[in-house]
């Protein structure tokens, strides 16, 4: 290590799993279930908004089972219990959960609903928290329980909360107003657009259950969850009436309350149910976001005589297409972050030959460099930093238990992002330490070629991410290889680093439009050996206008500026056009980043961006 001390303030490396507590907590839950007359209960890793990151008070799955992954479902019966996780977390769950009490079930083998069909005793009363299960999720549960002639029971108060004696309090971080210069559009203008969309779809109202949509609509941000500047909140937007914003008053200063009150009636969240019921009376048609709305709200609407329209919120596409001010902020954030990345990569190259650098050291250094800008609000997600075989785990999270020293002649993968007030970043680089093997260089180059194919793509308006996804895979496919994750996800403007509805993947059916920001991150992973992922963020822009074109064209503008490791490239695999693109990109990196870094970093950058 260098003499400088680095630390991480926005992320932890503690292994918080406590499998030894699972048996006792499971017994207490079963006692509470018996008291309520339940034969089973479902515990999803979710809050009432279906957020990717949830506040500590909603980490029920982790508290009960010890599993700390971001996706999973526990199913507890009188005699059996299982936790269903996807392929990212099968090994992690087995390490963190008391497997004598919970059977770890890979999602690829069976779904939670199928497990219930196979294990729920006939005639059982199976409970669920209607705040935590969406309408679609409830229908799946209903079908599964019906196969054993069981009854599905909506609980009043979560049984886990009843036995969680030291459950953290709900978060009340201050709500802040977004700078109009960064938002680029006023609240009234956004509300008018939403109202027009409701009229076009013949809807009377829209319930905003996604706090990201609330934050975008009312130009606010907060700090209720880690990694995403969210104020947990709800809203009801009515086509011809004043909106209602439901937010804990403890989060609002007098100035913020006054500013928001100019656009909406401000109410406490506890009043949401009653407001929905009153709105539904008389047959009102209300849109619920099928991805985030609790089934409880649908039940309240139907019971009051309203009509539930379940589908995508019209705000999703409005939010995804960034305006000029938002894109200017994103560009500024990426230039700032590019200087940080150059500083980090130069530091890494100087330190790693000493043989003492660990994965945690690298994470701490990168976060420290970002904090040194004075602009960092949070990291966008826990940094993925994997050396050697750890890099072969696409969603690896380093802890004190797994921390590995970065060795010679291996690849080091680091995937990180930042939340700056003007924009959100997400970038991955794979670095050759020592001399990479021929196989490593081949795989690295095939991934790079796929990355360049996306970056260079020109495509007609109306093209979806699913149609572009093969561009990133074609060179791996030629060698009989592939990667299991999507090629890219949407990214918010100082919001979620994983933003819908558009994505570049096999299931990305939403057409791309100008202003959308997406990641471009193909990869390759050889289990137990090494991994490669190369990621930039791209913004969809207007494409060229060739003579005779029959449709308008779109293209990508790259937002991220950081060198790709030339030492890992097999030049024989690159075409002349690819070499030209990479040289031009590196020249652009140098031109934009060199004036922003110190002399030592500039010297490193000169070599790292030299023509191939």
UniProtKB/TrEMBL annotation:
Residues covered by the Peptidase M24 C-terminal domain: 553-612
Q: What is its EC number?
A: 3.4.11.9
Q: Which residues form the Creatinase N-terminal domain?
A: 25-152
Recorded hits in InterPro entries, A to Z, give: Creatin/AminoP/Spt16_N, Creatinase/aminopeptidase-like, Creatinase_N, Pept_M24, Pept_M24B, Peptidase_M24_C, X-Pro_aminopeptidase_P
Could you state one GO cellular component term attached to this entry?
Answer: cytoplasm
Q: What Pfam families does UniProt report for this protein, alphabetically?
A: Creatinase_N (PF01321), Creatinase_N_2 (PF16189), Peptidase_M24 (PF00557), Peptidase_M24_C (PF16188)
Question: Could you tell me the keywords of this UniProt record?
Answer: Aminopeptidase, Hydrolase, Metal-binding, Protease
- Recorded GO MF terms: metal ion binding; metalloaminopeptidase activity
- Which residues are in the Peptidase M24 domain? 329-541
Highest taxon above the source species: Bacteria
Q: Does the keyword Calcium apply?
A: no
Q: Which family, according to the similarity comment?
A: Belongs to the peptidase M24B family.
Q: What's this protein's name?
A: Xaa-Pro aminopeptidase
Q: Which organism is it from?
A: Ancylobacter tetraedralis
């Amino acid at each position: 290590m260098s003499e400088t001390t680095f630390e991480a303030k926005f992320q932890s490396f503690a292994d918080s799993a406590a499998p030894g507590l699972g048996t006792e907590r499971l017994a207490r839950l079963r006692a509470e279930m018996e008291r309520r007359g339940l034969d089973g209960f479902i515990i999803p890793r979710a809050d009432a908004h279906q957020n990717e990151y949830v506040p500590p008070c909603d980490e029920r799955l982790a508290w009960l089972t010890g599993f700390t992954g971001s996706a999973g479902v526990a199913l507890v019966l009188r005699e059996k219990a299982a936790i269903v996780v996807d392929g990212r977390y099968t090994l992690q769950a087995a390490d963190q959960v008391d497997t004598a009490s919970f059977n770890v079930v890979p999602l690829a083998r069976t779904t939670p609903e199928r497990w219930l069909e196979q294990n729920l005793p006939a005639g059982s009363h199976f409970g669920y928290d209607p705040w935590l299960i969406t309408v679609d999720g409830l229908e799946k549960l209903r079908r599964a329980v019906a196969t054993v002639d069981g009854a599905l029971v909506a609980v009043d108060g979560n049984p886990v909360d009843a036995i969680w004696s030291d459950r953290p309090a709900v978060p009340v971080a201050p709500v802040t107003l977004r700078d109009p210069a960064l938002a680029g559009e006023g609240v009234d203008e956004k509300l008018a657009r939403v109202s027009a969309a409701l009229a076009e779809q013949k809807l009377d109202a829209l319930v905003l259950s996604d706090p990201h949509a609330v934050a975008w609509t009312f130009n606010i941000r907060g700090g209720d969850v880690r990694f995403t500047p969210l104020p947990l909140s709800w809203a009801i937007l009515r086509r011809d009436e004043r909106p209602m914003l439901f937010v804990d008053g403890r989060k609002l200063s007098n100035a913020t309350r006054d500013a928001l009150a100019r656009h909406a009636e401000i109410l406490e969240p506890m009043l949401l149910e009653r407001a929905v019921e009153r709105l539904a009376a008389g047959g009102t048609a209300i849109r619920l976001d099928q991805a985030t709305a609790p089934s409880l709200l649908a039940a309240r609407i139907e019971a009051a005589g309203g009509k539930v329209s379940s589908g995508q919120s019209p705000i999703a596409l409005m939010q995804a297409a960034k305006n000029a001010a938002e894109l200017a902020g994103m560009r500024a954030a990426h230039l700032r972050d590019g200087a940080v990345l150059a500083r980090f990569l130069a530091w890494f190259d100087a330190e790693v030959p000493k043989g003492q650098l660990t994965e945690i050291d690298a994470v701490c250094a990168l976060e420290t460099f970002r904090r040194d800008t004075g602009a960092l609000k949070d990291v966008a997600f826990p940094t993925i930093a994997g050396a050697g075989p750890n890099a072969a785990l696409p969603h690896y999270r380093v802890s004190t238990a797994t921390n590995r020293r970065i060795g010679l002649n291996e690849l080091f993968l680091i995937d990180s992002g930042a939340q700056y007030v003007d924009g959100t970043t997400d970038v991955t680089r794979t670095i050759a330490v020592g001399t990479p093997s021929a196989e490593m260089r081949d795989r690295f180059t095939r991934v790079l070629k796929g990355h360049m194919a996306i970056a260079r793509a020109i495509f007609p308006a109306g093209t979806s991410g699913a149609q572009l996804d093969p561009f990133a895979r074609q060179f791996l496919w030629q060698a009989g290889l592939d990667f299991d994750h999507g090629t890219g996800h949407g990214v918010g403007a100082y919001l979620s680093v994983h933003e819908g509805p558009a994505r570049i993947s096999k299931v990305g059916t939403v057409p791309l439009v100008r202003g959308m920001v997406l990641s471009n991150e193909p990869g390759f992973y050889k289990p137990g050996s090494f991994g490669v992922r190369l990621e930039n963020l791209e913004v969809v822009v207007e494409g060229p206008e060739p003579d005779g074109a029959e449709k308008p064209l779109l293209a990508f503008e790259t937002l991220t500026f950081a060198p790709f490791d030339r030492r890992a490239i097999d030049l024989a695999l690159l075409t002349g056009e690819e070499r030209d693109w990479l040289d031009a990109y590196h020249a652009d990196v140098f031109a934009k980043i060199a004036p922003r870094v110190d002399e030592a970093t500039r010297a490193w950058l000169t070599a790292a961006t030299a023509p191939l």
